[in-house]
Design goal:
single chain; 247 residues; alpha/beta; Rossmann fold; 8 strands; binds zinc ion
């Protein structure tokens, strides 16, 4: 059981309260990809007192990750630590009451159901569309909320994919862009500030879902930080969506 004093300032917030905090302490989340977005999300959910975090990533920490992957430090890069394991170690130091499961692997079609089926919410920390569509399709099929997020340059987007209503990622974009047709962080860079913004938008939606808030966001949010632009767009469930059509 987690000490209540630790969360006093969060419990004082009207949207959480004691009942919400108790729900958070029992909440289970899977974070797919523990790089830039994934470390921002994991840090936020660990400090907020989520009960269990499953961390899925097959990569190791590199020194070039440290500019934006905020759970890692120079010793992780020097040791070429696996990101999932290094993140779990840092979470243990931040909040020992959070149970973690560090999985050094890349999510694929044979593993995705097991990664998502026993949690309350799935959060997108992936750096590629293949994994996002896997998560989208599996969560849609299994009726699990998942939160899409992507970042590039100074810009990012995020959208909740909720079982009961609203669109999924394929309603928004039926298929992944062809490799090579879409800019990547290698070609246009990535600022850590947009990672923090989108990661925390994902995290707060996960909190709202867990506490049963009526304020779970229904829109797609698009943000560009360099010119300080913030847009919300309502996306409808598409009648042509191959995933939603089967529900
Ligand atoms: Zn859909």
């Amino acid at each position: 059981m987690q000490p209540v004093e630790r969360y006093q300032r969060q419990i004082a917030f009207l949207g959480i309260g004691s009942a919400g905090q108790a729900r958070l302490s029992r909440a289970r989340a899977t974070i797919i990809g523990v790089g830039a977005l994934g470390t921002a999300i994991a840090n936020s959910l660990a400090r907020a007192g989520f009960g269990f975090l499953r961390l899925v990533d097959g990569d190791r920490v590199e020194v070039s990750n440290l500019q934006r992957q905020t759970l890692f430090d120079e010793s992780d890069a020097a040791a070429h630590a696996y990101k999932a394991e290094a993140a779990a170690a840092h979470i243990a130091a931040i909040n020992a009451a959070v149970a973690t499961e560090a999985l050094v692997m890349r999510a694929d079609s044979s593993s995705i159901d097991k990664l998502v089926q026993d949690v309350d919410v799935v959060l997108d920390g992936a750096d590629n569309f293949d994994v996002r569509y896997l998560a989208n399709d599996a969560c849609r099929r299994l009726g699990i909320p998942w939160i899409y997020g992507g970042v590039l340059g100074d810009s990012g987007v995020t959208m909740n994919v909720l079982p009961e209503s609203g669109p999924c990622l394929r309603c928004l974009m039926p298929d992944a862009p062809e490799p090579g047709t879409f800019p990547t962080t290698e070609t246009v860079g990535i600022l850590n500030q947009i990672v923090a913004v989108i990661g925390n938008l994902e995290a707060i939606e996960a909190m709202k879902i867990v506490v049963g808030s009526p304020d779970v966001r229904r829109s797609l949010v698009s943000i560009s930080l360099w010119d300080a632009s913030f847009h919300e767009t309502m996306v409808e469930r598409s009648p042509a969506c191959p995933v939603c059509a089967r529900l």
